[in-house]
Every structure is written in C-alpha cells, then in structure tokens.
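Please, structure for the following, as tokens.
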Amino acid sequence: MRTTTLLRVMVLPMGIMNLMPWAGSTVRAATVLDVEAGDLWQMILPVQIFGVIICLAHGVLAGIQEKQLGACLVREQNFKSPEVNDKSPRDKKIFIFNVLLTLAVIATLIVTKIPDYVPFMVGLSLALIANYGLDAKTHKKIINAHATPAIMMCSTLLAAAVLMGIFVKEVTVDGAKIPSVINCMSNLATLILPETFGEHLPVIIGALSVPLALIFDTNSYFYGMLPVMIGIGENFGVGAESITAAMLICRNCATFAALIKIIPL
C-alpha cells in the first residue's frame, strides 16, 4: 500500500487516543483547570468515541481504496518471523489477565470518583505481581526501566504549579491589590477583541489549532496560553470547560494531522 495512506491511517488515531487521562496533554490541561484528569476525560469522552468511529471508518475506506489500486497482490512472501512461536497456556492467561486489569482500571476512572492515582497504583502493583512474581528486585528493575518519563512529567507539573501560582496570584502593595497576570492579560485582550469573537472563541481556537500547535510547544500552549484563553472566555461568558476542551481536542488532532504534511515520505 502507499506510504501516504499508511501514515494517514496511523496518525489519525494518535490524536484521538492521546486524549486518555494518562496522556501528557490531558494531564496538563487538567492541571490548569484544577480538576482530576479522569474528570476532564469523562467530559471529552463522547468526542473521543466519535473520533474512534471516524478513524475506524476511514481505515476501512482506505483499505478498500488501496486494494483497488493493487495492494495485497504479493502473496508468495511469508511475512511471519520464524522466531515467533505460539504462546504457552500461561502466557495466554497472563495476557487475558492484563487485558481485564486494564479494563478494570479504565472502568474505575469512569464510574468512580476515586482520585486518578489510586487505580493506577493498584493496577501497577497487581500487574507486577501477576507478570513478574513476588521478586522485589525484578519489580524495581521494571519500574526503573519506565520511570524516566514519569519523573519528567512530575517535574514538569511541579514547575507548572509554580508558574501557575505566579500567573494567578494577586499581589497587595501598600494596601492596594494588583490583579494577577492572567487577569491583566485577559482583560487587555477583552478590550481589543470584538464581542462576536469572544462568543465563538472555542470554534476559533479549533480553526486555528494547526498553526497554534506548530507555533507553541506543549508546555507553553497549555501552561501559558490556556489560562489566558480561559480568562478571555470568562469575560465573554464562555465557560472554562469549553475553552479547555476545545484547546485540548483540537491541538491533539491538529498536531498529529500536521505530521502528514511535515514528515517526508
């Protein structure tokens, strides 16, 4: 099949699946909104389900089109690696357990109000015991092998908390209250922008998501731009949840969709 079609089929679901509560973008947006990532995910879940359906439909149509153009005509080659062997009954049982455990963690995030870190920590403990036994040294090696991205995210969130505190904190000087940085920036933008612009701010953000995703990196987009947009939206009567959902969904989809044009084939 054509490499352009293969890239399109691969990239489109990335933006949709990157909306999960453990994804970096969702965690950042939830931090700014001061809610649990699972609560924010439940709000955008209908959009994600619709996106998954669209991606599946696109994959089917793309497959039909590629077959009409001659894909899958080479049948004499064996693409299965000779090193791949059938899994033992124990491996199959562990695989089924891992799938059920993953579904249980996701269901807990959806139907309960338990803080997000509790299902993840319990699920991780059960997964380590089921897959690697009770050997603490092996557990430590597995955790250390995957700890770097988690530690980096924790460091980013801690630094973002300091930045957000500076942005939203009002200062009192000689008995006079000085508005926060976010209030000053949002009030200034409100004075400049026409009222019709503010009323349709989520739609405008969606339309501008591609250039905004290319101009701003992830941290500056969510920790720098999102609070200002929330302030502007509140001045025009637009809820913070709508602004956050628009910036989160549109940036995710736009970022990965832009890869189709950027990556040379």
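Residues 3-72+135-262 form one domain. The mean pLDDT is 79.
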